[in-house]
Amino acid sequence: MPTTAERGRQVRRRLITAAAELIGERGWSAVSTRTLAERAGVGPGLVHYHFASLQALRIEAAAQMMSAVAEGATARLETAADAEEGLALIIRDLDRFSGDDPMSRLFIEAYLASTRDEELRRAISGVLELFRSRLTAWLATAGVEAPEETARVLGAALDGVMLHRALDPGLTSGVVEPMLRRLLAPTPVSDRTDGHEEQRQGDR
Description:
Layout: H1 4-26, H2 33-40, H3 44-50, H4 54-77, H5 83-93, H6 102-114, H7 118-141, H8 147-164, H9 173-180, H10 189-203
């Protein structure tokens, strides 16, 4: 028989799962205490017993789901033989998100809501920071130039692809991968020399 603490953890998990589902189905502001309790199969009072507020529950649900997607993507990099293969794996993984699926809608809803909620913005920023740090470590191991800067741009591009698919379903891995592969290409020596020369001229 589950202990009281185990039952409490089960209820929290059910509430978080229910909140994530409802955000993707109905939108951020449409997730109410009543609808959450009904979906999770618990009494409405348990929502506020386990979470400080309805918004706190929505934030935790969104952050957990987004973290799961980010961790799944970076886990695939560990099987890659080189940078190009890793990029292919992570981009092709995005093909499971059509832009109109519940997870894509959760991302869209959370990003939009974060523009009006500082706590949610911090939670999402934390997910992005963790994703970028893992991406940076992998890029550095793969020998990619400027791994930290590349991780920031690549992460933003991957996010953008996921969000834009709701408007442009044609942004599949076959279209995106060749374009993003250029981020991993080494800078030609002549370009680096020209850049330094321009800098020197600007300093004069």
